[in-house]
Amino acid sequence: MEFNLSPVLAFLALAVVVSHAALSPEQYWNYVLPNTPMPKAVKVLLHPDFMENKGTSVNVGGGGVNVNTGKGKPGGGTSVNVGGKGGGVSVNTGHKGKPVYVNPGGFIYNYAATETQVHDDPNVALFFLEKDMHPRATMTLHFTENTETATFLPRQIAQKIPFSSDKLPEILKKFSVKPGSAEAEIMKNTIKECEQPQIQGEDKYCATSLESMIDFSTSKIGKNAYAISTEVQKQTPEQKYTIAAGVHKMGGDKSVVCHKQNYAYAVFYCHKSETTRAYMVHLEGADGTKAKAVAICHTDTSAWNPKHLAFQVLKVEPGTIPICHFLPQDHIVWIPK
Fold first, then answer.
1. Signal peptide: which range, if any (predicted)?
2. Which of 152, 194, 201, 273 could form a disulfide with 266 if both were Cys (CB 3.0 to 4.6 A apart)?
3. Which range among 115-119, 180-184, 210-214 shows the weakest confidence by mean pLDDT?
């Protein structure tokens, strides 16, 4: 089950609120960042056909937007797992009568990981210690496929859609999502994560459009910036990767990292910290698959939740040693040039 919302259809349905002179998200990118190539993670969310068509289905009418999330498929249950992409929630409704489990993603600092997440979350493999990032080192990793096809809305439209817990009933009605459903639980938890207070040393913001993500990121690191995402040659199962020569540090100690959330349209949880280092790491899988992976290393974790996924996986204490993680393919890091 996925949230699939075509920005083109949504734009047509709500075009009356958009000025003819308004720039499209892509035009805004080129206007603010004229010399910054657009990473694949952004292209996919602007142009869904850039990747293989996943069967998006959207019905617009009656003042609402109905997102077809694939109900009625064989198997009897609904399963949503965006933890492998750091999307912030994992939902499994199973068969009728079974409970719904909602787990926060591993890339938000103030959340404690559940025991289930520690054992089953694909993000577990993405955490490592900075001292272990060197040529010829090996790591067992799984870079999951970009299967979440909810795309960007133009800012002029996104700004007119509420995004707060106290407006949840109105939001669910607008997207024809049934209260109490798995979809509603996902949307509720994404909003809740965005409303959580930032931790010490963190500057956070949830971007509900590409334009707002650009504005937040450039306000923190300047307009002379570039954006980059992890790219994997092809999809593979979990396997051993070897770090190739040329681990490259990017942008000093200042960056903005934006994590894709699971929602009816593209929402990114962005945070900036002065205690991070970003690297581009070239990897080669056991089957020959090559990857250019973005690694983020946190040099001060003292304010993180002591039960954060990283501490449980790496068996270290908060604030003791730099902790790193690779970014999934649909996350973005902004670096000053």
1. 1-21
2. 152
3. 115-119
Distance between alpha carbon 189 and the CA centroid of its chain, in Å? 14
pLDDT digits (tens, 9 = 90+) for 212-255: 999 999 999 998 999 999 999 988 888 999 999 878 988 777 88
Decide: 242 and 284 in contact? Cβ < 8 Å.
Answer: yes
Dump pLDDT digits (tens) for 32-85. Answer: 999 889 999 999 898 755 444 333 332 222 233 333 333 333 333 222 232 333
DSSP letter assigned to residue 1: -
What is the helix (H) or strand (E) element at residue 183, kind and residue range? helix 182-195
3-state secondary structure 256-314: EEEEECCCCCCCEEEEEECCEEEEEEEEEECCCCEEEEEEEEECCCCCCCCCCHHHHHH
Under a CB-based contact definition with an 8 Å cutoff, are residues 300 and 319 in contact? yes
Query: Beta-strand (E) ranges in the chain?
Result: 58-61, 64-67, 78-81, 90-94, 127-129, 138-141, 202-207, 225-228, 231-232, 239-243, 248-250, 255-260, 268-273, 276-285, 290-298, 323-326, 332-336
188: tokens are 């509720």
Q: Which residue has the higher pLDDT, 147 or 37?
A: 37
Residue 45, token pair as written in the block? 């969310």
Collapse the DSSP code of 255 into the 3-class scheme (helix H, G, I; strand E, B; otherwise coil) and give the result: strand
Q: What backbone phi and psi angles, to 5 degrees, belong to 9?
A: -65, -40
Between CA 155 and CA 225, with CA 145 as vertex, the angle to 5 degrees is 45
The residues with which 327 forms a beta bridge, in sequence order, are none
